[in-house]
Amino acid sequence: AQKVTQAQTEISVVEKEDVTLDCVYETRDTTYYLFWYKQPPSGELVFLIRRNSFDEQNEISGRYSWNFQKSTSSFNFTITASQVVDSAVYFCALSEDPNSGGGADGLTFGKGTHLIIQP
Amino acid sequence: DAGVIQSPRHEVTEMGQEVTLRCKPISGHDYLFWYRQTMMRGLELLIYFNNNVPIDDSGMPEDRFSAKMPNASFSTLKIQPSEPRDSAVYFCASSLVSTATLTYEQYFGPGTRLTVT
Predict the structure, then answer these.
(1) Which end of chain A is more exposed for a tag (fewer CB within 10 A), N or C?
(2) pLDDT of B68-97, one tens digit each?
(3) How many Cβ pairs within 8 Å bridge chains A and B?
(4) Do A43 and B59 touch (CB under 8 A)?
Protein backbone atom coordinates (compact mmCIF):
# COMPACT_ATOMS: atom_id res chain seq x y z
CA ALA A 1 0.00 0.00 0.00
CA GLN A 2 1.12 3.52 -0.70
CA LYS A 3 1.15 6.31 1.83
CA VAL A 4 2.12 9.98 1.81
CA THR A 5 2.69 11.89 5.01
CA GLN A 6 2.78 15.66 5.23
CA ALA A 7 3.36 16.17 8.92
CA GLN A 8 3.06 19.96 8.81
CA THR A 9 -0.63 20.79 8.88
CA GLU A 10 -0.10 24.53 8.78
CA ILE A 11 2.91 26.82 8.41
CA SER A 12 2.86 30.58 8.82
CA VAL A 13 5.80 32.75 7.84
CA VAL A 14 6.42 36.39 7.08
CA GLU A 15 6.87 37.42 3.48
CA LYS A 16 10.41 37.01 2.09
CA GLU A 17 11.25 34.17 4.47
CA ASP A 18 12.27 30.81 3.05
CA VAL A 19 9.98 27.91 3.87
CA THR A 20 10.27 24.14 3.39
CA LEU A 21 7.31 21.80 3.13
CA ASP A 22 8.04 18.22 4.10
CA CYS A 23 6.79 15.11 2.33
CA VAL A 24 7.57 11.51 3.33
CA TYR A 25 6.24 8.59 1.35
CA GLU A 26 5.91 4.82 1.60
CA THR A 27 5.68 2.44 -1.32
CA ARG A 28 6.65 -1.10 -2.22
CA ASP A 29 7.07 -0.22 -5.88
CA THR A 30 10.62 -0.10 -7.17
CA THR A 31 9.79 2.72 -9.55
CA TYR A 32 7.24 5.42 -8.92
CA TYR A 33 6.37 9.06 -9.48
CA LEU A 34 6.13 11.88 -6.96
CA PHE A 35 4.14 15.07 -7.48
CA TRP A 36 3.50 18.41 -5.86
CA TYR A 37 0.27 20.36 -6.39
CA LYS A 38 -0.78 23.79 -5.21
CA GLN A 39 -4.38 24.52 -4.20
CA PRO A 40 -4.94 28.28 -3.87
CA PRO A 41 -8.02 29.68 -2.11
CA SER A 42 -9.89 29.55 -5.41
CA GLY A 43 -9.83 25.75 -5.10
CA GLU A 44 -8.24 24.44 -8.26
CA LEU A 45 -5.32 21.98 -8.15
CA VAL A 46 -2.30 23.36 -9.94
CA PHE A 47 0.41 20.96 -11.06
CA LEU A 48 3.88 22.07 -9.89
CA ILE A 49 6.28 19.20 -10.49
CA ARG A 50 6.60 15.53 -11.26
CA ARG A 51 9.65 13.45 -10.36
CA ASN A 52 10.45 9.88 -11.37
CA SER A 53 12.03 7.71 -8.71
CA PHE A 54 15.11 6.95 -10.78
CA ASP A 55 15.91 10.62 -11.20
CA GLU A 56 17.27 11.90 -7.90
CA GLN A 57 18.51 15.20 -9.21
CA ASN A 58 17.15 18.14 -7.33
CA GLU A 59 15.22 20.67 -9.34
CA ILE A 60 14.92 24.41 -9.20
CA SER A 61 12.28 26.51 -10.89
CA GLY A 62 12.52 30.17 -10.01
CA ARG A 63 11.86 30.53 -6.30
CA TYR A 64 10.78 26.89 -6.04
CA SER A 65 13.11 23.97 -5.43
CA TRP A 66 12.59 20.31 -4.70
CA ASN A 67 14.86 17.94 -2.80
CA PHE A 68 14.28 14.26 -3.55
CA GLN A 69 16.08 11.81 -1.27
CA LYS A 70 15.29 8.19 -1.98
CA SER A 71 17.31 7.02 1.04
CA THR A 72 14.94 8.78 3.41
CA SER A 73 11.82 8.47 1.20
CA SER A 74 11.39 12.22 1.19
CA PHE A 75 10.48 14.76 -1.46
CA ASN A 76 10.62 18.18 0.18
CA PHE A 77 9.59 21.46 -1.38
CA THR A 78 11.27 24.79 -0.62
CA ILE A 79 10.01 28.24 -1.50
CA THR A 80 12.70 30.90 -1.38
CA ALA A 81 11.81 34.50 -0.61
CA SER A 82 8.15 33.66 -0.08
CA GLN A 83 5.42 35.96 -1.33
CA VAL A 84 1.82 36.48 -0.27
CA VAL A 85 0.68 34.86 -3.53
CA ASP A 86 2.32 31.62 -2.38
CA SER A 87 -0.37 31.27 0.28
CA ALA A 88 -2.19 28.04 -0.50
CA VAL A 89 -2.54 24.41 0.47
CA TYR A 90 0.24 22.30 -0.99
CA PHE A 91 -0.20 18.59 -1.66
CA CYS A 92 2.42 15.93 -2.17
CA ALA A 93 1.28 12.85 -4.09
CA LEU A 94 2.61 9.44 -5.11
CA SER A 95 1.83 7.11 -8.00
CA GLU A 96 3.25 3.87 -9.28
CA ASP A 97 5.25 4.14 -12.47
CA PRO A 98 2.82 3.62 -15.37
CA ASN A 99 5.69 2.53 -17.58
CA SER A 100 6.53 -0.38 -15.29
CA GLY A 101 3.95 -2.55 -17.00
CA GLY A 102 0.84 -2.02 -14.96
CA GLY A 103 -0.33 1.19 -16.56
CA ALA A 104 -1.23 4.32 -14.69
CA ASP A 105 -3.17 4.39 -11.48
CA GLY A 106 -4.50 7.21 -9.37
CA LEU A 107 -2.49 9.45 -7.14
CA THR A 108 -2.20 8.87 -3.40
CA PHE A 109 -2.27 12.28 -1.76
CA GLY A 110 -0.97 13.54 1.54
CA LYS A 111 -3.29 15.56 3.75
CA GLY A 112 -1.73 18.80 2.57
CA THR A 113 0.13 21.66 4.23
CA HIS A 114 -1.64 24.98 4.57
CA LEU A 115 0.96 27.67 3.94
CA ILE A 116 0.20 31.19 5.11
CA ILE A 117 2.46 34.00 4.00
CA GLN A 118 1.93 37.12 6.05
CA PRO A 119 2.76 40.50 4.54
CA ASP B 1 -5.00 24.41 -25.23
CA ALA B 2 -8.03 23.98 -23.04
CA GLY B 3 -7.45 22.14 -19.81
CA VAL B 4 -9.78 19.66 -18.16
CA ILE B 5 -13.31 21.05 -18.19
CA GLN B 6 -15.86 20.24 -15.52
CA SER B 7 -19.48 21.23 -15.19
CA PRO B 8 -21.27 22.42 -13.27
CA ARG B 9 -18.85 24.32 -11.06
CA HIS B 10 -21.34 24.43 -8.23
CA GLU B 11 -24.33 22.22 -7.55
CA VAL B 12 -26.80 22.47 -4.72
CA THR B 13 -29.41 19.76 -4.48
CA GLU B 14 -31.76 18.19 -2.00
CA MET B 15 -31.26 14.81 -0.46
CA GLY B 16 -32.66 12.07 -2.62
CA GLN B 17 -32.15 13.86 -5.91
CA GLU B 18 -29.99 12.57 -8.73
CA VAL B 19 -26.79 14.47 -9.41
CA THR B 20 -24.70 14.25 -12.57
CA LEU B 21 -21.23 15.71 -12.79
CA ARG B 22 -19.53 16.09 -16.16
CA CYS B 23 -15.93 16.10 -17.34
CA LYS B 24 -14.16 16.74 -20.62
CA PRO B 25 -10.53 15.60 -20.48
CA ILE B 26 -7.62 17.15 -22.30
CA SER B 27 -7.66 16.07 -25.94
CA GLY B 28 -5.35 13.15 -26.59
CA HIS B 29 -5.11 12.03 -22.98
CA ASP B 30 -5.73 8.33 -22.47
CA TYR B 31 -6.52 8.24 -18.75
CA LEU B 32 -9.35 9.90 -16.84
CA PHE B 33 -9.67 9.98 -13.06
CA TRP B 34 -12.42 11.05 -10.67
CA TYR B 35 -11.41 12.22 -7.17
CA ARG B 36 -13.34 13.54 -4.21
CA GLN B 37 -12.06 16.07 -1.68
CA THR B 38 -13.50 16.41 1.81
CA MET B 39 -12.14 17.90 4.99
CA MET B 40 -12.30 14.58 6.77
CA ARG B 41 -10.80 12.28 4.13
CA GLY B 42 -8.76 14.66 1.99
CA LEU B 43 -8.32 13.82 -1.68
CA GLU B 44 -9.33 10.30 -2.56
CA LEU B 45 -9.54 8.43 -5.85
CA LEU B 46 -13.00 7.20 -6.78
CA ILE B 47 -12.56 5.57 -10.20
CA TYR B 48 -10.40 5.80 -13.28
CA PHE B 49 -10.61 4.92 -16.97
CA ASN B 50 -8.04 3.98 -19.58
CA ASN B 51 -9.09 4.46 -23.18
CA ASN B 52 -12.70 4.84 -22.00
CA VAL B 53 -12.67 1.53 -20.11
CA PRO B 54 -13.12 1.55 -16.31
CA ILE B 55 -10.01 0.08 -14.72
CA ASP B 56 -10.50 0.43 -10.99
CA ASP B 57 -13.69 1.52 -9.22
CA SER B 58 -12.71 0.28 -5.77
CA GLY B 59 -12.80 3.83 -4.45
CA MET B 60 -16.45 4.36 -5.30
CA PRO B 61 -18.08 4.63 -1.89
CA GLU B 62 -21.42 2.98 -2.56
CA ASP B 63 -23.69 1.65 -5.24
CA ARG B 64 -25.28 5.06 -5.33
CA PHE B 65 -22.23 6.22 -7.25
CA SER B 66 -21.67 5.34 -10.89
CA ALA B 67 -19.38 6.63 -13.61
CA LYS B 68 -19.30 6.29 -17.37
CA MET B 69 -17.03 7.30 -20.20
CA PRO B 70 -18.95 6.85 -23.44
CA ASN B 71 -16.16 8.35 -25.56
CA ALA B 72 -12.70 9.80 -25.26
CA SER B 73 -13.91 13.34 -24.69
CA PHE B 74 -16.62 12.92 -22.07
CA SER B 75 -17.22 11.30 -18.70
CA THR B 76 -19.97 11.51 -16.10
CA LEU B 77 -20.13 10.78 -12.40
CA LYS B 78 -23.65 10.17 -11.16
CA ILE B 79 -24.97 9.99 -7.61
CA GLN B 80 -28.44 8.59 -7.19
CA PRO B 81 -29.92 9.15 -4.67
CA SER B 82 -27.73 11.87 -3.19
CA GLU B 83 -27.17 12.24 0.56
CA PRO B 84 -25.80 15.11 2.66
CA ARG B 85 -22.58 13.17 3.30
CA ASP B 86 -21.87 13.28 -0.43
CA SER B 87 -21.20 17.00 -0.10
CA ALA B 88 -17.65 17.53 -1.32
CA VAL B 89 -15.58 18.89 -4.17
CA TYR B 90 -15.34 16.42 -7.03
CA PHE B 91 -12.32 16.68 -9.29
CA CYS B 92 -11.76 15.16 -12.68
CA ALA B 93 -8.19 14.69 -13.94
CA SER B 94 -6.69 13.42 -17.14
CA SER B 95 -3.30 11.98 -18.03
CA LEU B 96 -1.22 10.97 -20.99
CA VAL B 97 1.24 8.16 -20.39
CA SER B 98 4.12 8.14 -22.84
CA THR B 99 6.45 5.15 -22.84
CA ALA B 100 8.55 6.88 -25.47
CA THR B 101 9.42 9.86 -23.31
CA LEU B 102 8.64 8.24 -19.95
CA THR B 103 6.38 11.12 -19.04
CA TYR B 104 3.38 10.98 -16.80
CA GLU B 105 1.46 13.99 -15.53
CA GLN B 106 -2.03 14.40 -14.17
CA TYR B 107 -3.90 17.62 -14.83
CA PHE B 108 -6.95 18.47 -12.81
CA GLY B 109 -10.13 20.26 -13.70
CA PRO B 110 -11.44 23.15 -11.58
CA GLY B 111 -13.72 20.83 -9.62
CA THR B 112 -17.44 20.72 -8.90
CA ARG B 113 -18.51 21.81 -5.44
CA LEU B 114 -21.51 19.69 -4.51
CA THR B 115 -23.78 20.56 -1.62
CA VAL B 116 -26.56 18.16 -0.69
CA THR B 117 -29.07 19.58 1.77
Answers:
(1) N
(2) 999 999 999 999 999 999 999 999 999 988
(3) 64
(4) no
